[in-house]
Amino acid sequence: MPPSAQTTRLVSTLRLLIPRLRLLQKKDTASSVVQRRELSQLLSENREASARIRVENVIATDIAVEVMEMVELYCELLLARANVLDQLAFGEKGTRARLRAKELLKKQTLAQSGEKASTTAAPESSGSRFGFSWLGGSQKKEASTVAATSPLEGAGELSEEENAYMDTALDEAAVAVFYAWHRFPHELRELTMLRTMLGERYGKEFMTLAQDNKVDTVKVPDRLLKGLRVRPPTQELVESYLREIAKAYGVDWPDGEDLDIQEELGDAPPEFVDDTQDGDQGGDLPQTPRKQNADPASGPNLSEARRASETSELNKATPPRGPAALQGRSPVSVAPPAPRTDNPNPRVKVPGSEEDGGGAAKKGGKTNNSGIPELDELTRRFADLKRKP
């Protein structure tokens, strides 16, 4: 069965909104990086007062990115369950949910009017025929707000009858969208369209309750509430941001850094504290034993011989690396020739080696003490090579 036209519109709106949210997150993240670089330059110039003011923009940008991430997750949930939502919303359960939200809003309105009547009964003797004073309007408004946020008796009865309006996860997503719409850090046309479509499914009464977070069974998540709250950042958060920015860009900003590190790390455990006093260098610590000369009268020759023998033994156990390792062998390496049918196991014969049969020494050639042939021997070999066909 193909989806209805309303479901198709909802899916199309969500598919436009999700990439839009991701694009805004990338733009805000790039803007935050630029602002952090500017803040690091201010800190390097010792303009701390200006940096403390501008860092609030970075904090607000990071919070806005977190809010958009949460709204994006809720939109993905609505996109995955769009058919389920429409099946519930346009059925009997959706009708009961809208009636339930209408009754809840009516009870809250009556409770607010009752609180207003009780608060306006006292100042009627002030001469105002309408029952309220011009100067006491702000106090009555605060009292009505407190009464609106107080729990209702009828809400408990409704929650006992049925815990969810449509579905628990879908209700939470709808409440988050309704609550975040007029507090969202950016103006999005697709988000307004989504709010209108969800209002058609849940009803205007549910949307009104969700905008003030007064739905009986579903509440806006605390993380989203804190992110959408308009409030200046704390001093600790500002200092931690400045400290992290200075550390990331290698700026020397020692404003309370050592004290904060000491407070975070705390004191060292007593077993790791060094108790050495009066020049004691830790007598309990193990020391490397040193070999003493058996005969002190033997002089430095014996000690040098022992040191040389120990060095040779160490070299045998762990051969040295670097130029010293090339002293016993030639630094030039020759790859062996490839095997052929007539010579399946070829070998490279170096002149003067055992495989070469002693080289020029066995042929009766003349060599000097270093093993290099003399000029007459080289001339004779060159003449022999010329005579060979």
UniProtKB/TrEMBL annotation:
Residues 110-128 have a biased composition (Polar residues). InterPro entries: Ist1 (IPR005061), IST1-like (IPR042277). Residues 377-389 have a biased composition (Basic and acidic residues). Residues 268-278 have a biased composition (Acidic residues). Pfam families: Ist1. Residues 110-129, 268-389 are annotated as: Disordered. GO terms for biological process: protein transport. Belongs to the IST1 family. This is DUF292 domain protein. It comes from Penicillium cataractarum.
